[in-house]
Amino acid sequence: MSLLRQEIAAVVRQGIGAAQTAGTLPAFAIPVLKIERPKNASQGDYASAVAMQIQKQVGKPPLEIAKIIQAHLPQTGFLAAIEVAPPGFLNFRLSDQWVAEQVDHIIAAGDRVFQESQGAGKTAQVEYVSANPTGPLSVHRIRGGVIGDTLANLLQAVGYAVTREYYFNNAGEQMNILGESVRARYLEILGDSVEFPKKGYKGQYIRMIAAMLIAFKGDTMRDAPVNDFRTLAATAIMERIKSSMRRVNIVHDNFFLENSLYEDNSVWQTVDELRKRDLAYDKDGAVWFKSTELGDEKDRVIVKTTGAPTYRLPDMAYHRNKLERGFDLVVDVFGADHAATAPQVLLGVKALGYDPSVVRTIIHQMVELVEGGEARRMSTRKGDFVELDELVDDVGPDAVRYFILAQNPNTGMVFDLELARTQGDENPVYRIQNAHVRCAGIIRKTDERGLTDEGADLSKLGTDELTVIRKMLELGEVIDRAVTDMAPQALAAYALELAGVFHPVYDRVRVLSDQEDIPLDVQKARLRFYRAAKVVLARTLKLMGMTTPEFMERRERPTETTATDVAIDTDSDNTEA
RNA sequence: GUCUCCGUAGCUCAGCGGAUAGAGCGUUGGCCUCCGAAGCCAAAAGCGUGGGUUCGAUUCCCACCGGGGACACCA
Q: Least crowded by CB within 10 Å, which of A92, A325, A480, A558?
């Protein structure tokens, strides 16, 4: 299905062109035609304000221009009426018959409904989460995760072959501190008196890892080098992060190891190449990137006096690697704490001779957790932060995804834990999912009673159903916009709108009734309509990474579950708590 | 201080330069013998301030006020 908006723009373009050929409009370059959606349904399904835009070139009042264009518009199969409204709008109304027929197209398309093709044949890479494996996944990190994962879904929905990637910072000083922290706790449990490292990670999970090492290795690691602790701890934490992500339906295709950039020497090659281009120099015992040459406000250190690289260097090498892989689009999803450094890294790859214009950086603002009116800071090092798992236990994975998605990434997000806990029944998540459940319920019930939609006559659908179908037809445009603007919140807003028009209609338009006598042909048409609604609702939910429940069950209040003992079933369409 | 993001209804937020600025929650009032009331119907209530660009500004630009974030040889 191509976008209606584009088809209507083409119609308007033809109309203007015809008027110009006929001499009723002067010759001028036709501007980019933006077809919009009127807020008021009485103004039609689509509108164009082109008459206002070109009034200067034409030298006539917009209302008159609109009438001239209207008179030259070609006939189409999908438009029922084209009206002119002051001060010069062209209003388009879709044909009811055409709208009703879309039900069959939607059902036929199924899971791929509103699959678009502007990304067909192209590749995209989306990098998200990329948290250091120094502790459990925090709520803040998962905001980027949900945004990135949903963008990846959306890119697939427009045809891109998408690689979902996690950049695993398993090198560097942070990891040494992690290793030392675990070693200290390990020796502590064995009863040795040890000094805990000054900058060490104090979270409870460090003790858990140490205890695990005791359980598996006993005291055999007493004299093991820090590096052993570091490697084992990183692996344990990474596994835990993966399992946490899986709970909110985030599964990456590729874990890119920072290590590998050292193993293949590309980190040091990067320095050499910068030097060759005279974009790196030595000063005060450190190596500096001459980023001012490319417009930065000051030069940046890339190799410390200790000989160790700063984070910038492997990041530059990593981004070079991404561009080397030839993706048509590279999306980086970072938190606001990286907002200042992301451009520096791109300057680095530019300095190396790569074109960073395929990279789109999405910055999301922080998540502030509020509990009992008090803000909770989230610092991995202090060990005082709210873990994703904790939040998932509280409100469920679908709610975590939806609440994060519903907000513009650019805005700071306040997550009130108390509110989230009491969310329960007043939750928009359930409102949306319940629409899907209701469709499923109808299909189930009609199956039981042997009613099929075979030979359904869609002209039997009423205005209520057509209103919902019109809303369903918007999904293609929503996907298109969400991709163009990298704005996944458009999807969340749409989902709630779709549920909002669905529920009142469900209430009025029954397939089965003990009270009214509904003719068989009407029942069949309605059943097919609900089947299509289910398809669109499911597509919307899946794009958001949410489940598509067939039944509504009250979610049990969480008990003492932890990440590791929760069964994970990513393929299931059902909510099984 | 510099840079950056954000100020829209009581709350949490949508809003793609267009016509009467939307939704959920909350509040007030009215609705359940029927596909699950986790629902339906209705009401009250809003663009931080001041300029500018434009035929038209919540949207773009500038200033101010208020809030978040970033400004390391930490990542």
A: A325
Q: How far apart are CA A336 and CA A367, in angstroms?
A: 10
- Those nucleotides of strand B lying less than 7 Å from any protein Cβ are 3-7, 12-26, 33-36, 38-41, 55-56, 67-75
* Nucleic strand B near CB of residue A437 (< 7 Å): yes
Contacts of A511 (CB under 8 A, 6+ apart): A442, A445, A446, A451, A518, A523, A526, A527, A530
One-letter identity of residue A422: T
- Looking at the DSSP bridge assignments, the partners of residue A81 are A93
CA distances from A140 to A118, A181, A212 (A): 32, 23, 27
Within window 330-389 on A, which residues have Cβ closer than 7 Å to strand B? 336-341, 363, 365-366, 368
Strand B closer than 7 A to residue A496 Cβ: yes
ipTM over 0.90: yes
Give the Cα separation of A394 and A456 in Å (integer). 45
Residue nearest to nucleotide B16 (CA to C1'): A481
Residue A551: half-sphere exposure toward Cβ, Cα within 13 Å: 8
DSSP code, position A557: P
Q: What is the pLDDT of residue A372?
A: 54
Q: Which two tokens stand for residue A562?
A: 């932890």
Q: How far apart are CA A450 and CA A140, in angstroms?
A: 50
A447, two tokens = 């199956």
Q: Which residues are CB-contacts of A488 (< 8 A; sequence separation ≥ 6)?
A: A147, A150, A151, A154, A405, A409, A482, A544
- The per-residue pLDDT for range A487-526, each reduced to its tens digit, is 999 999 999 999 999 999 999 999 998 888 899 999 999 9
Residue A535 backbone phi and psi in degrees, to 5: -60, -45
- Asked if the Cβ of residue A503 lies within 7 A of any atom of strand B, the reply is yes
Pairwise CA distance, residues A400 & A418, whole Å: 14
In this structure, what token pair is assigned to residue A546? 């949410």
Question: Which nucleotide C1' is nearest A440 CA?
Answer: B35
Given a cut of 50, whether residue A560 has pLDDT beyond it is no
Six-digit token string for A442: 């109808």
Instruction: Report H helices in A190-311.
Output: 204-217, 226-247, 258-263, 266-276
Of A559, A552, A557, whose CA–CA distance to A576 is shortest? Answer: A552
CB of A558 closer than 8 Å to CB of A520 = no
Residue A325 per-residue DSSP state: T
